[in-house]
Amino acid sequence: MCEPRHFRVDYAINPWMDPTRPVDAAKAVAQWTALKQTYERLGHRVDLITPHPALPDMVFAANAATVIDGIVLGARFRAPQRAPEADLYRTWFLTHGYRTVVMPTHTNEAEGDFTWTGDLLLAGTGFRTDPGAHAEAQEVLGVPVVSLHLVDPRYYHLDVALFVLTEATPTTRATIAYYPAAFSPGARRLLRRLYPDAVIATEEDATCLALNAVSDGHNVILPTEATHLAAELLARGYEPHFADISELRKSGGGPKCCTMELRG
């Protein structure tokens, strides 16, 4: 995670961002701190990277790398405003003992568009990550990749349209939640085939970034407004935990955007 010490909205690179709308950086830090403390209270370790004053979106750590089995595939941002973040995160991994750190040749916004299910890497495209980055991820990470086409500009990254509730095991398939209208017809058919028992989110869920959630297989951290999805998850045996992300949402970010998951 990266503290939003320098968080602001100086430019607009997605439909959520409006540079004329006031941003309270101190409130953003407080909300981020509460999210970090929730992870720690639930027993998770949180590693930190130092924020850079010229990079207001560096708080959205999920976009900077994908890590599976200790192999790191870095990011190549589409927006030039965020491009310098990639090298700062690459340096962090190299100085923290990661031996295999590969920087991509294709545009790739990491866990923004790559979601690990335990046996498949679901990979979004349509707005940010190039389709060619999917084959590159498969080659670098050594896992099978399933491409999913996004069609709604509000849900420009996969991680605002879908998240994994429980990862697959050798004997069980993963459980996911997703918002069907964010995907092309073919991607919707594919998701129904792969995950017939998925939690189907509503437009109400999607518009408060409820799909930008983080699950450890039991505890699910999601935005405060996501009461409908929380009720669905509670009925399935999950334990929802709410996070106020009202300031961070002004850049189109939520709990998952602020969280890069380090696997191995």
UniProtKB/TrEMBL annotation:
Claim: Isomerase is one of the keywords in the record: no
Catalytic residues (UniProt): 157, 257
Organism superkingdom: Bacteria
Keyword annotations of the record: Hydrolase
Biological process terms in GO annotation: arginine metabolic process; citrulline metabolic process; positive regulation of nitric oxide biosynthetic process
Family annotation (InterPro entries): DDAH-like
Cross-referenced Pfam families: DDAH_eukar
GO molecular function: amino acid binding; dimethylargininase activity
Gene3D superfamilies: L-arginine/glycine Amidinotransferase, Chain A
Similarity remark: Belongs to the DDAH family.
Matches recorded under PANTHER family: DIMETHYLARGININASE (PTHR12737:SF9), DIMETHYLARGININE DIMETHYLAMINOHYDROLASE (PTHR12737)
Record-given protein name: N-Dimethylarginine dimethylaminohydrolase
